[in-house]
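Below is one protein, fold included:
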Amino acid sequence: MLVLKVSSPQKFKNIISYIQIVFAVLIYGGYQIVPRLFEKSVLKNTVIGEAPALLLAPPYWFAALLKESTQFSSHPVVLIAAALALLMPVLGIYVVVRFFAPTFNQKLAQISGSSGEAAVAKKVAGNRTTYSQMMANLFTNKGIEQASFLFSWRMMLRNRDFKLKVYPAIGYMLVIFAVSFLRDNSLSDVAEGLDLSSRKSNITIMMLLYITGLVSITSLGQMNFSEHYKAAWMFRVTPVATPGPILSGAVKASIIQFQLPAFMLVAVLLTIINGPMALLHVGVAFCNLSLMAVALVMFSNDYLPWSAPVNKNNQGSSVMKTLALMFALGILGLLHSLAFPYWWACVALGVLAGAAAWFSFRDLQKTGWHRLKTYQY
């Protein structure tokens, strides 16, 4: 209510979206990380039942009140928490009724209606080159593909529904990494677990590389769907001979926005630990995941970006195709794992995967209108 009172309806929607994303990651991370933390020797003998910091946690207030009602404790922290459990609900009701309720319904009406603030156009210098424009100049062909790249890039940054479905995957990925290295007691143990010369580190490095790229594949699976799918008529009325460049531009936007930054961080980490040889494995994994991203669009996606209603998502045939592609990615990961000890085998696998990805992009750019579905509304 406080956020709703001090912010505009549009900003409130964005804030709520980010809160949902953060809570989804925190809940998942809490279930995965907290039990493992208590297995650490540092926390085994820690008693937190009467720690003063718990006064900041409302659930502790009611636990303390229940304890006081069944078994009296004279500890000041427990007594204060029990008192807060009795006083804070009453104080909260008074604050809501006195300060927030008068404008609450009005704000809700602005959120559900069209009475929000009008967007203010921002002046942008004509010669300014943004990061997305620089990436588009580097990785796309001028014209339709570049326009699709920039359009998809901005939609992925601004579409709330898309962010709610894709951004938690980034948090889950970070949690998985944390869980993987939580068993290590020091930075030297982490470095040893990522040492290329150790056969034991094979699985850890493979997981680090391939889970990193799954966010891009997740984004491609959600890119077709939008609540404002009726606006996709613009794709059909433009003088575009084939929709292939539209698809390839969207795929490149997803790979560069989600996959490339994560792989650059992993490359820096592995290079610090192992030297330049680590870049070979990063490149092989990047080529494999890029190939799977193109294959996902070619064989599973039947719509142009943002052109299908949300209720068309997760249909049986689409799910089966996606599972088949995930199985294929597992095969590529297995081949990479088998080739892991031999640099020449990794080079050969990387060249084959890179060539396959390049030819797949060329084939995707030739996609005709007959292969895509048009949602009838």
